[in-house]
Amino acid sequence: MTSKQRAYLKSLAMTMDPICQIGKATVTPEITKSVDEVLEARELIKIHVLKNCMADPREIANVLAERTHAQVVQVIGKKIVLYRESKNKKKIELPKEKESR
Fold first, then answer.
1. How crowded is residue 52: how many other Cβ atoms within 10 Å of its Cβ?
2. What is the 3-state secondary structure (H, E, C) of the chain?
3. What residues have CB less than 8 Å from 42, skipping those under 6 apart?
4. What confidence score (pLDDT) does residue 67 get?
5. What is the mean pLDDT of residues 79-86?
6. How far apart are CA 11 and CA 83, in angstroms?
7. CA angle, 20 as apex, 35 and 17 as ends, to 5°?
8. CB of 44 within 8 A of CB of 82?
9. Cβ of 1: how many Cβ atoms within 10 Å?
């Protein structure tokens, strides 16, 4: 993902509300499955890590991205933004990469 594409996704995520919350149990198989389903439906999601969660939000983002084959767009404080292109219902059109000469 290029920095231009990442910036575009960040701008889309600014107006979004968090869809999932991660609490004390951190990343369970149920949360992973839920995030996977929501990514397929929406492509770009925001996740809120609750205060009672002791795990590092950046680690949680990396684990979720790895398990769901998504990309971490950004982690700010206790907010995580993930992106994965939908297999069936593509909604977000990323800016094209510049061709190298």
1. 9
2. CCHHHHHHHHHHHCCCCCCEEECCCCCCHHHHHHHHHHHHHHCEEEEEECCCCCCCHHHHHHHHHHHHCCEEEEEECCEEEEECCCCCCCCCCCCCCCCCC
3. 19, 91
4. 95
5. 93
6. 13
7. 120
8. yes
9. 13
The chain-wide mean pLDDT, for the chain, equals 90
Residue 8, token pair as written in the block: 């575009």
Taking a C-beta distance cutoff of 8 angstroms, is the pair 19, 46 a contact?
A: yes
Give the tokens for residue 79.
Answer: 């907010």
Q: pLDDT class for 66, splitting at 50, 70, 90? A: very high
Distance of CA 47 to the CA centre of its chain: 7
Cα–Cα distance measured from residue 46 to residue 40, given in angstroms and rounded to the nearest whole number: 14
Tokens 């492509």 locate to: 43
